[in-house]
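Changelog note: in this version the structure field was regenerated for every chain. One regenerated record is shown below for reference.
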Amino acid sequence: MKQNFTVRQGALDGVEAFLSVAQHRSFRKAAAELGVTPSAMSQAVRALEERVGAVLFIRTTRSVGLTEAGERFLSRAKPAFEELVAASEVARDLGQRPAGLLRLTVPPAVVPILLEPLIASFCQAFPEVEVEVAANEELVDIATEGFDAGIRLGQFIAADMVAVRLTPPFPLMVVGSPEYLHRRGRPERIDDLRQHACIRIRRSDGSIAPWSFLSAQKPIEAVVSGPLIAHDFPTMLGAAVEHMGLAQVPEPMASGLVKAGKLVRVLEAFATLAPGVFLDYPSRHQVMPKLRAFIDHVKSRTDATENS
């Protein structure tokens, strides 16, 4: 049976009025300070006394004093109320300018090639923001895990998230080392992969990802096999460099090793495009200044790259 629960109302009602009266020892002066009438001030204190269950002030026509209960209430309520005010000021400050801790969850592979340049320039531009990067291959729930945003491949972004493009779409390339290709031969068709050692990757949901291709403008998924199953792209690339087999990875992650001659592209005619890498976050209506500053920084850097 479903129970009805209600949020307790009025737990702090009248506390500010009580503290002001206790400071001035006057309902009239306290009312002037808070911008209300003495009658309203008296009603607020009386309601607090009823809720507390004790008389807090001794009132005469000439003076206002604290009872013993009032003294004890003041000793505990004043520092607590001051902490609440300070907490509000801190929160308000973070809500008005880029400052505080910005937590990002990212795949390990994008940190050196994409995120490091962005973070370096962002930290220089916004020195009051601390950036925490949690490198994780798993698709972390941003909201429940306390992150401000995530960086993900486009195909893994949920429909209810806001996405900001970080890279253009890029091909998924099959690469192998020159020594491996010399030993095993260069595949010319997708079916040739049956005769090759293919380094695979296990997805965060536990499944092993097939390899994706485009043939005659139609998408094809190939189930491949090989000696190694990795959980991230850097491991796949490392294994390919060590001549263990072929690997299918995002082109930007392999381009440096290809230029260095450590890896060679194959099956380029069948390469399919991945959507690219995106920054994603939960809602346009809950963006703190620190995240808004990072989003704007990302956009400015992306626009500059596209226009160069």
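Spot check on this record: The chain has three domains: 15-94, 100-168+276-307, 170-274. Residues 100-168+276-307 form a domain with the D-Maltodextrin-Binding Protein; domain 2 fold (CATH 3.40.190.10).
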